[in-house]
Amino acid sequence: MSGIFDRHVQLLHKSLDFRAKRNALLGSNVANAETPGYKSKDLVFENALGKAMNAHIPGPLNTTSLQHFDGRHATPLHMVKPEVIRTSNPVGNMDENSVDLEREMVKLGENQVVYQALTRFIGHKFTQLRMSIREGEV
Amino acid sequence: MNFLDAMAASSSGLSAQRFRMNIISANIANAQTTRTPEGGPYRRRDVIFGALPAPRTFEEELRAQVKEDDPLHAKVLGVAIDDRPPVLKYDPSHPDSNEEGYVAMPNINPMEEMTNLMLASRSYEANVAAYNATKNMALRALEIGRA
Description:
heterodimer; A: 138 residues; mainly alpha; two-stranded antiparallel ribbon; B: 147 residues; two-stranded antiparallel sheet; 3 helices; 46% helix; 18% strand
């Protein structure tokens, strides 16, 4: 991304989006904790994100154009999509439902904390930008 | 809108569980009922839950298929009538007793109903917690960019 917003803002934006989406999915797992046959779902993102963060590092092959294949399979940051996975419940319910309520609640809590941390980071980022725009005045 | 979707999913869980609590209460309330509009003793009822995609507008329906990462709502698909036979209780003084003095009583086990009620109430609380998590996240998002 060009301009005054650097890669970190884009990364935080992507992560916030992901956390919000994950929250919706975990919430629907809780809502369907007693629906027979429902399979609990989760979103994973960090793997794809990690790859995307290194996308600007050239791969093992030399290229002379952006369109060339450089031997590294990386998606640019703005294209990264979280992946939906089915989570299993080792204990298992008798009605083919795979929701483990305690685990869902823990995930919800964790997700919420990380989201709050991310909002704080991005807020800090904007405060810094504002400060430099106003030549050091806060 | 992610947050509104999440809140809608949680609220679907809340109403489904509340509906279930109503049915369980009716089962307990009618544990001794021997006369019903359909005739015979009261028969135990059970709710059937299903996971359905969020209701959509006609336009959205035309445009999209259900995506895998869309939250599914918990919905009450119907109420099933338990086909356990009524319990025969010997009580010749009862107005609904038959010639041999037996009354057909609803086959309701209070222990079973109370356990289900407890489960419903815990699920309800879990949905409240999930809703609050979503609300807190949305409020935090509003704080972004505020000095």
